[in-house]
């Protein structure tokens, strides 16, 4: 199967007081279509740095990033912005909704930039909002009227409305309570069941259990990988036990 995203010898360094810090080191990684890849590792292992380099939000110091056959690391900042709009969706720990816009308008802001048919975009936005459990009486509310879980659901709809090749998520349940976090993870599972490729950074075991593979970073290198079937298709206790054993082996 052809990769939807892959890297070749990816490196990312930062200068700190004149000293180069090598955060990602010669990393080769492939994401297949419909993968739900979880990135884990200790604090400072390079998880978020890798996510930003993979998605074109940050340029690598060296190496290559390919979306399909398209090599993106040579793009200008403006070219990367256009590319991300058409190919990537993003969900962060902080949702970054526009405070002066309603739920529906927040979703449509990104859709109108990419989609030419505004009527179709509005219809799709409403359909997706219903699917994540946000009924019509919520669509005219503003972000400050939403709970954390509700706001994150809006963020997910905004991220997937343009049907991105990959949905990137960085600790999407990190600021939510356990009930809201489970609701958000259930939505990610449904999105993945519909064929969406996902790359997610997390430090949380419950979140990692939703993936189909877990890669473990240490000092900017992938030091281990654990593969799983789709969530809900095998014994949950065994799934948890196997993943916990892998993470303990990695030093988690």
Tell me what the structure shows.
The chain contains eight helices and ten strands. With 252 residues, the protein is α/β, with parallel strands linked by helices. The protein has a single domain (3-250), classed as 3-Layer(aba) Sandwich (Rossmann fold). Helix 3 packs across helix 4 (118-131) and helix 3 packs parallel to helix 5 (148-160). The model has no long low-confidence stretch (mean pLDDT 92).
Notable features of this structure?
6-stranded mixed β-sheet; 4-stranded antiparallel β-sheet; Rossmann fold; globular; alpha/beta; 252 residues; single chain
Name the poorly predicted regions.
none
Question: What shape does the CA trace take?
Answer: globular
Question: What's the tally of helices?
Answer: 8
Across the major sheet, the strand order is 6-7-8-3-9-10
Structural class: alpha/beta
Rg, alpha carbons? 18 Å
Q: What is the count of β-strands?
A: 10
Q: How is the biggest beta sheet arranged?
A: 6 strands, mixed
Instruction: Provide the number of structural domains.
Output: 1
Q: What order do the helices and strands follow? A: EEEHEEHEHHHEHEHEEH
Tell me the name of the CATH class: Alpha Beta
Name the CATH architecture.
3-Layer(aba) Sandwich
In which range does the helix fraction lie? 25-40%
- CATH topology grouping: Rossmann fold
Averaged pLDDT: 92
Share in β-strands: 25-35%
Report the CATH superfamily: P-loop containing nucleotide triphosphate hydrolases
């Amino acid at each position: 199967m052809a990769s939807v995203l892959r890297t070749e010898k990816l490196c990312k360094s930062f200068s700190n007081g004149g000293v180069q810090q090598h955060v990602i080191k010669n990393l080769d990684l492939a994401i297949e279509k419909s993968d739900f890849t979880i990135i884990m590792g200790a604090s400072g292992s390079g998880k978020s740095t890798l996510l930003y380099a993979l998605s074109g939000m940050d340029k690598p110091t060296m190496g290559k990033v390919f979306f399909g056959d398209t090599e993106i690391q040579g793009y200008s900042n403006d070219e990367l912005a256009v590319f991300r709009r058409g190919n990537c969706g993003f969900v962060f720990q902080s949702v970054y909704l526009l405070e002066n816009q309603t739920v529906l308008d927040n979703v449509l802001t990104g859709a109108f930039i990419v989609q030419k048919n505004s009527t179709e975009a509005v219809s799709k936005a409403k359909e997706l909002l219903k699917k994540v459990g946000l009924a019509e009486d919520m669509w005219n509310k503003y972000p400050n009227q939403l709970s954390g879980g509700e706001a994150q659901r809006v963020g997910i709809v905004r991220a997937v409305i343009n049907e991105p090749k990959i949905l990137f998520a960085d600790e999407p349940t990190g600021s939510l309570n356990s009930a809201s976090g489970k609701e958000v993870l259930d939505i990610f599972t449904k999105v993945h069941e519909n064929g969406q490729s996902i790359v997610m950074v997390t430090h949380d075991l419950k979140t990692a259990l939703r993936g189909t593979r877990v890669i473990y970073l240490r000092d900017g290198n992938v030091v281990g990988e654990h593969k799983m079937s789709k969530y809900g298709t095998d014994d949950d206790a065994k799934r948890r036990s196997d993943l916990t054993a892998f993470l303990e082996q990695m030093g988690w």
